[in-house]
Amino acid sequence: MHIRGDQAQLVVGGRLDVRSAADARTVLHSAVDDGAGDLVLDLSELDSWDATGLGVIMGAHRRAGRCGRRLVLRHVPPQMQRLLVATRLHRILAIEGGIGVESLHRA
């Protein structure tokens, strides 16, 4: 897993799973705490995430809210969009461009 960027935008790549969760949490929390305005997570390079990785995203979302910020997901891969829909988290998280729920059911 790799994360690069600053307090306004981070690109997350590789696998966000139980093995990388602690490191990802540290980077995301620092970015939330040290910045202002929206924090955009670009997921275009993310290969996969598991329940632990999704928990890290939700934790960063909650932390951003407490800091008066908003966590925005950008370029969410289709398979991860399906997971967000299945867990109904697409209703809670800010997702740039939204999720085309209709197209996910056909895939």
Automatic annotation (TrEMBL):
A Pfam short name: STAS_2
InterPro entries documented for this protein: Anti-sigma_ant, MlaB-like_STAS, STAS_dom, STAS_dom_sf
Residue ranges of every copy of the STAS domain listed in the record: 1-107
MF (Gene Ontology): anti-sigma factor antagonist activity
Membership in a protein family: Belongs to the anti-sigma-factor antagonist family.
Protein name, per record: Anti-sigma factor antagonist
Species of origin: Streptomyces alfalfae
Lineage: Bacteria, Bacillati, Actinomycetota, Actinomycetes, Kitasatosporales
